[in-house]
Amino acid sequence: MGRGDHTEQAILEAAEAEFLEKGFALAKTTEIARAAGVTHAMLHYYFRTKEKLFERIFREKVRLLAESLAATFDSGRPFMEQVAALAGAHFDFVAANPCLPMFILREIHLNKERREVYLPLLVAPLQATISEVGKQLEAAARRGEIRSLRTSDLMFSIASLNVMTFVGLPIAKEAFGMDDEDVRQFVAQRRAENIEVVLSRLRK
Amino acid sequence: MGRGDHTEQAILEAAEAEFLEKGFALAKTTEIARAAGVTHAMLHYYFRTKEKLFERIFREKVRLLAESLAATFDSGRPFMEQVAALAGAHFDFVAANPCLPMFILREIHLNKERREVYLPLLVAPLQATISEVGKQLEAAARRGEIRSLRTSDLMFSIASLNVMTFVGLPIAKEAFGMDDEDVRQFVAQRRAENIEVVLSRLRK
DNA sequence: TCGTTGTTTAACCGTATTGTTAGTTTTGAC
DNA sequence: GTCAAAACTAACAATACGGTTAAACAACGA
Prior knowledge:
- The structure is a homodimer.
- Chain A is mainly alpha-helical.
- The first copy, chain A, has helices spanning 2-26, 29-36, 40-47, 50-70, 79-96, 100-110, 112-123, 127-142, 151-167, 169-175, 180-202.
- The first copy, chain A, has two domains: 1-48, Arc Repressor Mutant, subunit A (Orthogonal Bundle); 57-202, Orthogonal Bundle (Tetracycline Repressor, domain 2).
């Protein structure tokens, strides 16, 4: 079955690229097959439908996202340091998967039925991190270490700044007239800047 | 020509809704015609192609965005106040056009050729505001009123926080378990929070 | 009333896309 | 080597979509 495994893997890899770039609705199974170097009937032979193939890719990507966040928040250090580490880790994850945010936003926005299926898949693995951050935030506020803030606002600001760094990059490139080297520098600076923005908000 | 004007207007309104919701590639001319209550041949009679109809909608939306930003920045007041006003005005615009950011991001991300055509259309009207903010920012920094900051970082943070408030709303709703009333409150709080985040970054 | 012009309809064309199927080749256990 | 199961191919089916066209219809001034 070595031959079959190779074909399946080739389809999966081509599907990931195609789905991430274009989203479910715009991805073509024929193009996935072409990129994988197989007949498009093979795609149906191994995965039955486009939907099932998509779901496999989506679940894997969401699992990756959740894993990358779960590990970073440990309660031994000062709260400000923990927040900086969390924001940095999230930035690094998005930097390593720059197509993923737009991919997820697109799928979530498309239609209600799809949202109801895939949104819980995305959010469930994040709940543990959210509630842990919430606890630490309240404790730090009680100790007077930080300016008080809603957990939802803190988390949302971190995610917004980091995600937009990559989702909005083409616009920033045009708006600020950046060449490729400028872009590289801009992204690197954004990592520090996003963290600094969040920490500034927390300082008394 | 009264009859024709009405048909044209009905198509334009249906097209705006369809394009904003689904983007160019996923919008169906047949669906636009159905929603407008006319034969889909009428769409081609008035606008020739899907592309031309789309461009009309896109240009109008971009014009709207640029207008809403150009007016808010006047140099008479303290810099911090000006920034707060700009961020607030941008937030209000996005709140009044909640589908627009996702629409623009989708189109910009889709393919290179399209990006090259539509991105300058979007960015050109913003240049005046960007350079004016840049001048005021440098002046305020020289006067020691604020912590120094790159113009691109300031503008990008404002846009990121405001845009994501609406683009990421479905995810936030699920992640923080909000009902419709919570969502209303969250959005209202986000306006103040986004401004506060930006101002915190500027304070010495 | 006639004819011109602009508007509308229904039918059609070509193409692309997801999915199926019947039949062929390859593989691996015996 | 044989044979059954797995892997694969090529052709087809069904539908949907953007766009065209020819003919019908309405408005309206001469």
